[in-house]
Structures are given as C-alpha cells and as structure tokens.
Amino acid sequence: MRWLDGREPCDLVEWVKLWETLDIRRPHDNPSFIELIGLHHSTPVAVIYEEPHGSVFYAFSWRRLNRFEYFNSLEEEYFDIVSPYGYGGPLYSGKDE
C-alpha cells in the first residue's frame, strides 16, 4: 500500500500519472481538484493498494484534528478523512472474482 501526499512534488507527479491511467477518471480524484476544494488545514492524499488481480485507488483530504480547539488538549493524535466535495470512495480496477 502506498500513500501519496499531494504536497510532495514527487508524489504529486506519480498521482497525476496514476490518475491518467485509471479506467474511470473522476475529476474529484485529481489532486488539483482536491486542493481546490480542500478543507482548511487539510492535505490531498491518495492511497493505492495493488495485488496481482487488481488495485484500489482512494483519494481524499486528510487532516490532523488536534489542530482544532476541541481536540488540541488531547495527547493522542486524531485524524479525519473527507471525500472531495461529498463524492468519493475507493475505485477498484481488476478482475471481478
């Protein structure tokens, strides 16, 4: 499994190349779209899981909740993921077995 950080230039290039090869290219899975509508203090992220029979691609905004007043007194870190603009969910490519 790989995590691609939309703020990192190398990850961003890989993400765009991967997005261009997807069977279904949803606009809201593109890192530029996620950045454009991104939540305050969030990071565009894509997670890719690959196996011999298929792969899963999941793009979302990721944010550290401890930055917000309600959570900033907690010692343990908490995170949130949000699909872009209410769309989203993982994309599967591969065999239907």
Which stretches are low in confidence, meaning pLDDT under 50 for 5 or more residues running? none
Helix-strand string? EHHEEEE
The chain-level structural class is alpha+beta
Counting structural domains, the number is 1
Q: What's the helix count?
A: 2
Envelope shape: globular
The Cα radius of gyration reads 15 Å
Descriptive account of the structure:
The chain has helices spanning 9-21, 31-36; strands spanning 2-5, 43-51, 54-64, 79-82, 91-94. A hairpin with a 2-residue loop joins strand 2 (43-51) and strand 3 (54-64). Strands 1, 2, 3, 4 and 5 form a five-stranded antiparallel beta sheet that branches. The radius of gyration is 15 Å and the shape is globular. It contains two helices and five strands, in the order βααββββ.
